[in-house]
Amino acid sequence: MPKSLAYHVVVNALEGKAGWTPMTMFVSAVSHAISGHLPYQRYHAAGRARTAEGAGAGVVERMVNDFLSTDINPGYLLLSSFQREADVLIAFNAYNQSANLGVQTSLGANGYARRPSSASRNSPANGNGNDGGNGGNGGNGTPTAGRDDPDICRQGTLAIVETMMATTRRNAQLPSGAERRSLTTTAKILGVEASAAGEVALVFESEGHLPIASVTRKLGCHQRTLERRLRESNITAEALRQASRLIRASHRLASLDSLTMIAFDEGFSDLAHMTRAFQTASGMPPSLIRKLMRLSQNSLPALSPSL
Description:
two-stranded antiparallel sheet, mainly alpha, two-stranded antiparallel ribbon
């Protein structure tokens, strides 16, 4: 049985680790652009620990927003691209159905409901197998008795939803719609664009899937020197290339280009390779993301993760 997961932003916010720097934030954003989830056990354990500490919801919400401000995961790029709140609800629910989440949150116009996945119910973190969510709460936000779903975990997840809704309302007011996020825009927000990692990210985003040796030539340095400088920041050129490839492909999913063409152009070996990469990164295949990205142009029926 595959391991149940949680979205990385909520895990990071709940763990509340000190010592984040602009570079470690950038490295985290790159890592989670490639794999946007962390083990559900970490999410659950962090929620229990923060509850025991008496941490307030406001602290977690602020940290969620800090991480979201630099989030470039393909799934979040999708969810922050809409101009209608109804589209966000459909897309978020489709993501919850598709990703292997330990706790799945269903959103409706009048509230939300949370339920455990089968994997989280049987997780060692749960002891008696009764963990996971507040089940069908009728959309009123009231936990079901007997479920171990710390309030602070729910608050972390709902902070993402609230931010997405606020972003959607802002997008609707912008002449060109949503802002286009990338590795380089994230590096600029964090002030690390002049670092070795920022320079490599810029080359990959502007040139595409180049060999590492070609990147070093464009930057006018030796490969070993570049590798050493990146290693000092705890990142690799290959991670930057993988993240850039996924983000470039994400921005093309709303186009009329075939998925096979996008996979070929962006350096995936084939469509199956790109599909696996998107599933790992966002919990959704590119075909589903494409359908969801077109919500603003079309009125879609309820979507299945298999789409």
